[in-house]
Design brief:
single chain, alpha/beta, Glutaredoxin, Glutathione S-transferase Yfyf (Class Pi), Chain A, domain 2, 2 domains, four-stranded mixed sheet, 9 helices, 6 strands
């Protein structure tokens, strides 16, 4: 299998964490989003959305969207299982994961920020204000109240919630988002980053990493 990846992409970061947790050997192919490589015809033929990540299976099938890819990996290699079998715990885990992946991350994604700058004429201070508002208010501040650390987001084992949380906090720091109101999330993050799988997936440790 091949993962079309970008070291700074929060969505790709999620998939890298899942791959590392499951101990899978998957070839990684960088797609440099800042240089527009996701808009090349050969990549759009694989992923018409022009986003990263995408997972190419051995038979050439392409899977898109990070949570769908992680669901596939969870079925392919269910140890550790990232979405608990218990329906109640699974719903709580998915609730946090979806709050991050569907409500927080898209509003701070590169293409949205580029539109703010290029089409709506926002300067850096305007873009930063947008990021901080949507990352925190109704975003990470709500997630802070939803998690039940123990010491991961929901208990003693990492779940899909942790896989989504760590990249989102990484993205928040890139834009100097104040995080001091999130003590539970910061404690979960610290525990996650001490785990070898999370550490191996960190953006700075990827082959295509840049300053």
């Amino acid at each position: 299998m091949k993962l079309y990846d970008y070291f700074r992409s929060s969505a790709a970061y999620r998939v890298r964490i899942a791959i590392e947790l499951k101990g899978l050997a998957i070839q990684r192919i960088p797609v440099h989003l800042a240089r527009g490589e996701q808009r090349r015809a050969d990549y759009l033929a694989k992923n018409p959305q022009g986003l990263a990540p995408a997972l190419e299976l051995d038979d050439g099938t392409i899977l898109t969207q990070s949570l769908a890819i992680i669901d596939y990996l969870d079925a392919l290699a269910p140890h550790p299982l990232l979405t608990p079998k218990d329906p109640l715990r699974a719903a709580k885990v998915r609730g946090v994961a979806l709050a991050i992946a569907c409500d927080i991350h898209p509003l701070n994604n590169r293409r949205v920020l580029d539109y703010l700058r290029e089409r709506l004429g926002q300067d850096d201070s305007g873009v930063d204000a947008w990021i901080h508002h949507w990352a925190l208010q109704g975003g990470l501040e709500a997630v802070e109240r939803l998690v039940e650390p123990g010491p991961f987001c929901f208990g003693a084992q990492p779940t899909l919630a942790d896989v989504c949380l760590v990249p989102q906090l990484f993205a928040a720091r890139r834009f100097s988002t104040p995080l001091e109101t999130l003590p539970k999330l910061l404690a979960v993050e610290a525990h996650c980053l001490a785990h070898p799988a999370f550490a191996a997936a960190e953006p700075s440790r990827q082959a295509d990493a840049e300053p």
